[in-house]
Design goal:
Layout (H helix, E strand, L loop, with lengths): L5 E6 L7 H14 L3 E5 L2 H7 L2 E3 L27 H14 L3 E6 L1 H14 L3 E5 L15 H22 L2 E6 L6 H10 L3 E3 L7 H15 L3 E6 L6 H12 L5 E5 L11 H19 L5 E6 L2 E6 H6 L6 H10 L2
Parallel strand pairs: 1-2, 1-4, 4-5, 5-10, 6-8, 6-9, 7-8
Antiparallel strand pairs: 2-3, 10-11
Bound molecules: adenosine-5'-diphosphate.
Length: about 325
C-alpha cells in the first residue's frame, strides 16, 4: 500500500464536546509521524466546496478545553448523492489528501463508509456524539460531558420539584438511545427513566407513579429520552395528567444546552487517546474502521459494524435505578 503523506480531518453531523480535543490529537499525531494534515471545514460540505487549510501544531493550540468544533460542522445533502461524493473525491485528489479522518455520529460514519467503498480511500472514523449510541465502543466523545450537564440541570430542577411537591418530566437527548436518560437518572437520583429501548406499558408507568410519587415521595423526577417511541416528555406528561389530574405535573426540555460546554476530563482524555489512535491505525494499514474503546483499551471496529449493529443498554442499569430510587 502507498505511504500516507497527507491526511484530511473533518467534523460532521451534530457537534459534541471533545471534538476539538480529537482534532488537536489527530493533528499533532500526524505531524509527529511526519505527515501533513489538512483541516476541512464544515464537514462533507467543505470537502466538496474546498474549504480546506493546512494545519500546523499551533492551529490546534488552546482548543482542548473548548466545546463545539473549530472545524465547524454542517449537514450536507449533496454528499448523500454519488455526484456529490465524486466532487468530494476530486477535491481530495486536488488537495493531495490520501487518507481521511471523520469525526461524527452514525450519519457521518455511514457517509464515510460509502465514500471509502466507492473511491478506495482509507478512512478512519472517530465516534463523536453525545448519544453514546455507536456499537463497538463503550464510550463516544461528548457523552460524558453531556451526562454531567444533564446531572447539573436535574439537580437544579430538583430544588423546584421539592419546594412545590411536583412531578417533573425532564426530556433529554437520545433519539434512538437511552444512555443519557438512563445514566442521567442514576446520577441525578431521579425516580425513573423512560427510554426507547424498553417499551413501557401504561401499567408500568402507573405502577411507577403509584409506588413512587404517591406513597413515599412528595416530589419526583423522571427522565425521558426524546423519541417517537417514548413520545418525549410532553407525551408522557399528557398521559399522566389525564390519569392523575390531582398531581402537579411539569415538563422541562433540556434541549441544546446538553451539547455545549467545556469537555469533561474524561472526554478530553478519550478524544486525545482516540485521536492519536487514528494515525496509528493508518500506520498499521487499517482502513475503514472506527476507533472504539472497550474495557479501557483502544480497539478498531469495522465501520460497517459500528453503524449497523444496535448497542444494547446494560440491563443492570435498570435494576440499579429501580433499587436506588425506592
Ligand atoms: P451524525 O453524524 O451526527 O449522525 P447526520 O446524520 O446529520 O449526523 O450526518 C452527517 C452528515 O453525514 C450528513 O449531513 C451527510 O453529509 C452525511 N451522511 C449521512 N448519512 C449519509 C448517507 N446515507 N450517505 C452519505 N452521506 C451521509
Amino acid at each position: 500500500m502507498n505511504k500516507i503523506r497527507c491526511i484530511g480531518i473533518l467534523t460532521s453531523g451534530g457537534d459534541a464536546p471533545g471534538m476539538n480535543a480529537a482534532i488537536r490529537a489527530v493533528t499533532r499525531s500526524a505531524i509527529y509521524n511526519g505527515m501533513k494534515v489538512k483541516g476541512i471545514y464544515r464537514g462533507y460540505k467543505g470537502l466538496i466546496t474546498g474549504e480546506i487549510e493546512e494545519f500546523q501544531t499551533q492551529h490546534v493550540s488552546n482548543i482542548i478545553q473548548r466545546g463545539g468544533t473549530i472545524l465547524k460542522t454542517a449537514r450536507c445533502m449533496e454528499f448523500k448523492t454519488p455526484e456529490g461524493r465524486k466532487l468530494a473525491y476530486d477535491r481530495l485528489v486536488e488537495e493531495g489528501i490520501d487518507a481521511l479522518i471523520t469525526i461524527g455520529g452514525d450519519g457521518t460514519l455511514t457517509g464515510a463508509r460509502l465514500f471509502a467503498q466507492e473511491f478506495n480511500i482509507p478512512i478512519i472514523g472517530l465516534p463523536g456524539t453525545i448519544d453514546n449510541d455507536l456499537y463497538g465502543t463503550d464510550l463516544t466523545i461528548g457523552y460524558d460531558t453531556a451526562l454531567n450537564t444533564i446531572m447539573e440541570c436535574v439537580d437544579k430542577i430538583r430544588d423546584t420539584a421539592t419546594s412545590h411537591d411536583r412531578l417533573f418530566f425532564i426530556e433529554v437527548m437520545g433519539r434512538d438511545a437511552g444512555f443519557l436518560a438512563m445514566n442521567g437518572a442514576i446520577a441525578s437520583g431521579a425516580e425513573a427513566a423512560i427510554i426507547p429501548e424498553i417499551s413501557l406499558a401504561e401499567e408500568q408507568l402507573s405502577d411507577m407513579i403509584e409506588n413512587g410519587f404517591r406513597k413515599s415521595k412528595n416530589s419526583s423526577i423522571v427522565l425521558v429520552a426524546e423519541s417517537e417511541v417514548t413520545g418525549g416528555a410532553m407525551g408522557v406528561a399528557e398521559r399522566v395528567k389525564n390519569e392523575y389530574p390531582q398531581f402537579d405535573v411539569r415538563v422541562s426540555i433540556l434541549g441544546h444546552l446538553q451539547r455545549g460546554g467545556s469537555p469533561s476530563a474524561q472526554d478530553r482524555i478519550l478524544a486525545t487517546r482516540m485521536g492519536i489512535a487514528t494515525v496509528e491505525a493508518l500506520l498499521e494499514d487499517q482502513r475503514n474502521v472506527m476507533i472504539g474503546i472497550q474495557n479501557d483499551q483502544i480497539v478498531y471496529v469495522p465501520i460497517s459494524k459500528a453503524i449497523k449493529n444496535d448497542k444494547p443498554i446494560n440491563q443492570d442499569l435498570l435494576h440499579t435505578l429501580r433499587i436506588s430510587s425506592i
